[in-house]
Design goal:
Helix content: 40-55%
Distance between the termini: 54 Å
CATH class of the largest domain: Alpha Beta
Strand order of the largest sheet: 5-4-1-6-7-8-11-10-9
Shape: globular
Number of helices: 19
Number of strands: 17
Bound molecules: 6-O-phosphono-beta-D-fructofuranose
Radius of gyration: 24 Å
Largest sheet: 9 strands, mixed
CATH architecture of the largest domain: 3-Layer(aba) Sandwich
Oligomer: single chain
Structural class: alpha/beta
CATH superfamily of the largest domain: Glycogen Phosphorylase B
């Protein structure tokens, strides 16, 4: 399971000759074709100042960070949704000035183009369908006897929100394609845009379309919680693409099973990881995402991050455990604290000597389940601190740091003995990769076997089953008592893995497969035009 034998691209050991060939293919591809990326969240979010000008702040999350990194040197177009008032105003200001393309930040070569749904349509698409429904489904987050209920409101949000906003993306992409001399390379991102591939394909039968899904893909049985019509539209939307990409081979395989179960008339080739449907051949691959190691290091050692190092030590202790997450139910924060509680009960000799720092970023606060989860996190922190706090020394076991500051996150990651990444299930868990890269104390990684990152990092981490509170408590003890030499060995291997498989590798593997596809299409087109000539 730990080998990515399902990846469509050559293994690291492939010959230098083949790598040079691939490099040439990629360079040719990029010099001939425009790249168009589409994702819900854009690279920046805008805020309008009092004087009418705009300030831009980098968008949060792994998708934005990874795609921004790989697009930095490219003349690409990035199509994103205007997510808030600032973005909408920026889009309007651009339209009034007669510009369709916005330069997101000074120095970026790529340009941004906004899709601007009405607030109601956006709310339905993002806060009713994408996050509470699709995200929950794909992370197995429901207590199924009670949720979900697909009601008339859900259907209205599906049609008037998800389908409508996906159509707006498709239309915007079609307009951007019209301005290109040759069919561009269209890279669709993630679960908010499942229908876009099929919609673009209807308008442009020769489009080159790839969709990368950053989150897990559950088994067909679990998809049955959505009505047939919705799950079929989702699969068929994705099958509008030429390539569908996932984080892990397991999720790619799950997608094949799901298509077989719910898409009438498709035929699946499990060995070649491909679907034939509607007269087209769609390949399904895995490309594990990673981080921009240079950029992470730059930020970790920037002045801003160093400024945090002045106040972070007040949270450190003889032993320091760290976790960094969005306040997100799939991250399993509450169970991580239960495990810590268990550990302290079992090993009272660690009282006063260990601090658990949780850097938590509130997220998707318009969705009830996220607000409730943040309350659950605060409540358990309060309970554990009240149970163990030492009034004489002032020691308290858990330090919850709320808010969003990437330099602060990286500053904290330099200093931990144990990093806890115990997600219930996770597309990748890029935080585990960032932490492994920049930690300076030979810290031990506790990693959930449900995180995509386990495929690359599992061998040198302590791998836990996400619901196993007892096992996670034991892993904490093992990590905190691990001999230095063993910590050093594991931490060196983790760093090496992250360095050799960084975000450029993720992008390169996708481009190799796209280049193969383009060459194949060109050859087919030549053969097709040659046939009538021969017949005459
Ligand atoms: O793929 C998951 C992802 O897109 C991550 O990049 C990020 O952590 C999260 O979802 C962001 O979600 P949102 O844009 O809704 O805040």
């Amino acid at each position: 399971m730990l080998n990515d034998n399902n990846r469509g691209t050559p293994p690291a050991s492939s010959s230098t000759e083949a790598q040079t060939d691939h490099q040439e293919m990629i360079e040719r591809l990029l010099s001939e074709r425009q790249i168009i990326v589409a994702s819900n969240r854009g690279p920046v979010t805008f805020r309008q100042r009092g004087d009418g000008t705009f300030s831009a702040r980098q968008g949060s999350g792994g998708l934005v960070t990874a795609v921004s990194a790989v697009l930095q040197g490219q003349q690409a177009i990035w199509i994103a949704a205007a997510m808030n008032t600032g973005d909408r105003r920026r889009a309007r200001a651009a339209a009034e000035a007669g510009d369709t393309l916005i330069t997101p930040e000074s120095g970026s070569k790529f340009k941004l183009r906004y899709v601007v749904p009405s607030e109601k349509a956006y709310y339905r698409y993002y806060n009713v369908i994408s996050n509470p429904l699709l995200w929950f489904l794909q992370h197995y987050l429901w207590d199924t006897p009670r949720a979900p209920d697909i009601t008339r409101e859900t259907w209205e949000a599906w049609t008037g929100g998800y389908v409508a906003v996906n159509q707006m993306f498709a239309d915007e992409i079609a307009v951007a394609c019209d301005a290109c001399d040759q069919e561009p390379i269209i890279l669709l991102q993630d679960y908010q845009l499942y229908l876009v591939g099929g919609m673009v394909r209807k308008q442009r039968p020769n489009a080159i379309l790839q969709h990368f899904i950053h989150i897990p893909w559950p088994d067909p049985d679990y998809w049955r919680l959505l009505p047939m019509e919705m799950r079929r539209q989702i699969c068929e939307g994705l099958l509008g693409c030429d390539i569908v990409g996932f984080q892990t081979p397991d999720h790619a395989r799950s997608f094949l099973y799901t298509c077989e179960a719910y898409v009438p008339g498709c035929s699946i080739d499990y060995a070649d990881r491909a679907v034939d449907w509607n007269g087209r051949h769609i390949i399904v691959r895995s490309y594990p995402i990673s981080i921009d190691t240079d950029a992470v290091r730059r930020t970790a050692y920037s002045q801003e991050a160093r400024a945090y190092e002045r106040y972070l030590p007040q949270h450190w202790n003889e032993y320091t455990i760290l976790r960094v997450d969005r306040a997100e139910p799939s991250k399993n924060i509450v169970r991580g604290f239960h495990a810590f509680d268990q550990f302290l009960e079992d090993h009272p000799d660690f009282l006063n000597r260990v601090n658990f720092i949780a850097v938590t970023q509130p997220s998707r606060m318009d969705v009830e389940e996220y607000r409730d989860y943040l309350d659950d996190v605060s409540a358990i922190v309060g309970r554990i601190n009240a149970k163990y706090a030492n009034v004489e020394t002032g020691w308290q076991p858990i330090h919850l740091i709320m808010g969003e500051s990437y330099p602060r996150v990286l500053a904290a990651m330099k200093w931990y003995d144990v990093m806890m990444a115990n997600s219930i299930i996770d597309g990748m868990h890029l935080g585990a990769k960032e932490a492994a890269l920049i930690n300076e104390r030979n810290g031990v990684l506790i990693l959930s076997e449900g995180a995509g990152a386990v495929q690359q990092l599992g061998e040198w981490a302590l791998v836990v089953a996400p619901a196993d509170v007892e096992g996670t408590a034991r892993a904490l003890y093992e990590a905190l008592t691990m001999p230095q030499r063993e910590r050093q060995r594991r931490s060196a291997m983790l760093k090496q893995m992250v360095e050799q498989d960084d975000v450029t590798v993720w992008f390169r593997h996708q481009l190799v497969d796209i280049a193969d596809l383009v060459v194949g299409n060109d050859t087919d087109a030549k053969e097709q035009t040659a046939v009538p000539a021969k017949a005459q």
